[in-house]
Amino acid sequence: MSKTVLYNGKVYVERDVFAQAVLQEDGVIKMVGTDEEVLAAAGDAERIDCQGKTVLPGLNDSHMHLLFLGRMKMVPALGESKSIDDMIDMCKKYLEENPDCRGLYAMGWNQDKWENWDGRLPDRHDMDKISTEIPVVLARACGHSSAANTKAMEMVGITKENNKVEGGDVFLEEDGVTPNGYLCEKAGFIARDAVPDFTKEQYRKAFIKAMDYAVSCGLTSVQSNDAGQIFEMEGCYDILKSVYEAGEGRLRYTGQLGFPSVDALKKHCEGPNFNASLYDDWLRYGPLKILKDGSLGARTAMMRKGYADDPGNYGVETETDDYIRQLVACAEEHGMQVVTHCIGDDAIERLVRIYSEANGGDNKNRDSLIHCQITDIPLLEEIKRTGTLAAYQPAFLPVDMYAVVPRCGEELSATSYAFGTAAKMGIHASYGTDSPVEDCNPFPCIYAAVTRKDLEGKPEGGFHPEQCVDVTTAIDAYTIESAYHEFREDVKGRIKAGYYADMIILDTDIFTCDPMKIKDIKPELTMVGGKIVYRK
């Protein structure tokens, strides 16, 4: 029997309620209370003195791509690039250090972070400077646009004669026919297929590497979209299962699953893996994941009035309403939750309507809007009225606050990234990072929700500070609301008897520290299912 007691701590139970000590046995919390009463019941339990530090429920990222994050940790960190030339140099150095590389796919560049950016986006001419011999595809941080070299486009058949992709954009040279290598949505996804995939063993190592990093940041659960949209379903779960079967799992993983057709979805819903929970609830098959539009940064999010800084551009519809209706109807018939990537107000409005038509206004499957960025008040009211969930990524805000006004205008920007309004309305809103789009570290994400400032503390007072939330709301969004998002609020998200012993000890009191310090908080210990998976 495994028994541990955490004592002499500031244990967060729920809003304005704290305890001193927690006892866990075999991965489940047995008792929460004062030091005196819990230590008296602890018996021969291992004792951990928290030294007065704050103890939180383990944090739960409600939308990310953990296996993909592991893959990205094996290639150049484009998020650190400061220009196109800098990105080129990073990749050339990587290829010099990896001479056997047969193709390079990396992700993370963001022109909004580049120094003295002149407005030019990377194209095939830039990518050809990295290599003309192997395929090279470098995706923007959002993953919704990419730069591909000539070799990669040739390999997937994107040519002068075939320069259109349904559900995607192929940008052209001045001659109007030659693809220039800048690709959006499905065009970029197709180009990625030119790059040889990792082996199963490489992916195992990548997954473990990603988990190690995630638990060091205080994550104990993730809801991760890898299978079916980024990786083939069965192959992805073969990798995940091999890790958990070997006892190498570090956190709890719920898959958000993509399917290539309605028939494939129906087959899954009627098969043995539907809503399956494996390895004592450490690995689960979760909801259907759909992609409706693109991103704000790439100007491919679907906007009702178009882009203020790009007249005539209304974004990219990645999947049609009719096809999504078929998917949602199939999911509703089988009692399967649906989570859909929706960033622009047009995409959000359409999905709320499609969900409501399918469920008759009773959102018992907890259908959710992932991102839910660009909103006005009537749209937020409709989300509340229909009981639709929102899975927000406050981590986007420190960069997006500088893009949203020119793209969407002042009025719409004031009601977008509406964390405060959602909380006041009582919308079920969870938090995450969409990692590797942003770092999966939850504390800069909480900082952004609480302060609405960039990482340098600007603007003074915060970007539309009326949308700030308090620390408790942000923590609850990362714990009990994220648990609600995956139908686990009865076993996750609180430090209470009967809940999983998923907890973290912080180096700083998040409830009383200067809000500017929240982004720098580090866990000193991470426990999942009663096992210590990280110790500083």
The end-to-end distance, rounded to whole angstroms, is 25 Å
Gross morphology is globular
Query: What would the CATH topology of the largest domain be?
Result: TIM Barrel
Fourth-level CATH superfamily of the largest domain: Metal-dependent hydrolases
Record field, number of beta strands: 24
Q: Which architecture name of the largest domain does CATH use?
A: Alpha-Beta Barrel
User: Compute the gyration radius: what is it?
Assistant: 23 Å
Low-confidence stretches: none
Strand percentage lies at: 15-25%
- Biggest sheet descriptor: 9 strands, mixed
Q: How many helical stretches?
A: 18
Average of pLDDT? 96
Please estimate the helix content. Answer: 25-40%
Classified by CATH, the class of the largest domain is Alpha Beta
| Alpha-beta content class | alpha/beta
Number of domains: 2
What tags apply to this protein structure?
536 residues, alpha/beta, Diaminopimelate Epimerase, Chain A, domain 1, TIM Barrel, 6-stranded mixed β-sheet, 18 helices, 32% helix
What does this entry look like structurally?
The chain is an alpha/beta fold and 536 residues long. The protein has two domains: 118 residues, Diaminopimelate Epimerase, Chain A, domain 1 (Roll), CATH 3.10.310.70; 319 residues, Alpha-Beta Barrel (TIM Barrel), CATH 3.20.20. The protein contains 18 helices and 24 strands. Strands 8, 14, 15, 16, 17, 18, 19, 20 and 21 form a nine-stranded mixed sheet that branches. The chain has a six-stranded mixed sheet with strand order 3-2-7-22-23-24, with helices on one face. The longest helix has 17 residues. The radius of gyration is 23 Å and the shape is globular.
